[in-house]
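Hey, can you fold this?
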Amino acid sequence: MALFGDKFSDGTGASLTDFIQRGDVLAAAGHFDEAAALFEQAKPAVPDNPEPWFKKGSALSALEQIAQALEEFRGGIRLLPVYAETKPLGETLQLVARLEPDTAAALRLMRLEGDYRGSLLLRGWLKAVLDDRRGALADFDELLKAEPENAQAWYLRGKIKAGLPDPDGAVADISRAIELSPGMARAYAQRAIAFLGLDKPGQAAADLAKAAELDPSLKPWLDECVGQFVALLERQLKFPEESAGAPQAPRE
């Protein structure tokens, strides 16, 4: 389904939904070049709709055309920043990290060497994927100075802090993200992990329930979080002398 509905026709009766659905069928069959062409056709008629950009980026990612895929994702993010957390973009960044594990080289591959604000979100996330967490935090710090209302930046910075671990900082950042964007289901899930690290199971349970309410598709991810926490508690009861942190968030 198109994010903003079936709002245009190309003059031949083909609608945005037609282009997207036909492209999805081709992509599912492995015809990524043809799918990318259809997604490109959908873009000009609805310039405020990010869906064709992300669809095309995903198709190009499957073709391992990484730089071009990132250009599409950047275009979509400019239209709807919350989509920086979409699965296709995350998979693309992980593919970049596998192809080029050196941070500087990966940034060059994605053409994210510059400091312009439009690239900071992607650049920070890629650094996090490459385990350059301090570098990622620096990028998000810079972005938030320029855009203090950017909920996605607060969320991603909090997510990184949760893995340092800095659960107090994570809770503060993710709480700010939730204030700015109350419907961000993954933010509740990530804050729950931080609460577990602070030994606040009641608040963690409330956040997990809220995440599942907002996005039922997250249930397997949430179940994995709960499973990790239960295993951690059992280990702590069995070996109280050992010190362990909160469970790590499953990969998205």
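Oh, and this one too while you're at it.
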Amino acid sequence: MSSLRAAAPTHHTSTRLLPDGSSVETTCVPLAGRHHDQTLVRSVTRAAVRPTAPSALVTSRSCRDGYYRNWPGGWAGGTYDYVINPSGMPNRSRTMRAIRRAHRTWNEATNDCGIPAQRLVRLHDAGTTHRHFGRRPDGVNVVDFGDMAAIGMSNRTTLAYTQTWWSGNRIVETDQRFNIHKRWSTSGARGAFDVQAVATHETGHTLGIAGDYAGRAHLGLTMAANIAPGETRPRTLGWGDILALRALYP
């Protein structure tokens, strides 16, 4: 059942129940043992599993929809390094390429709207690692596949999870985990979730975009809450996604 939790000062907390019964949760909680102005922000995306086939209408809508919702800030200088743990990945080499393409989408503000490329951020691929998603900050920004229950999430309802650590209004570290128990594809295959589409959405969270817009009003945007099996729409940014990036990294 959906519920609200107490928010950290100046931050936003919400839990939304989606029409299909799944939920989207964005939560700010104090980071124990750290300076009082440092908070742990957890952005959780539980993507809907109801098929919603992309259409020309959705693509057109994404180029007109300027809606966005951001966290209070982003990365200093608009740059960070990330590493990928390939352990347990399906189709390892193709999956890693999809994750890297997702990060490049934000580097170049890739879109289908005819908006010129803009290099507002620099997300640098720093190779591979044996480290995993961390429950506490360790100075390394990791992307991995793994069990969601091991990090306190549901394997049934959680598709991917991004956790971000802050110092004041600046992001200092982020980790992403993809549910190893879900079916994944790098080609938009029916019945499987598209790695690049989901990774592009999750990387928006790592940049400070709150996103997770429930319902159909903003369905054309990368940061919309619903990602259906076989859907590749979120691979490229919509107008609202680009505006969110510009607002955080002017």
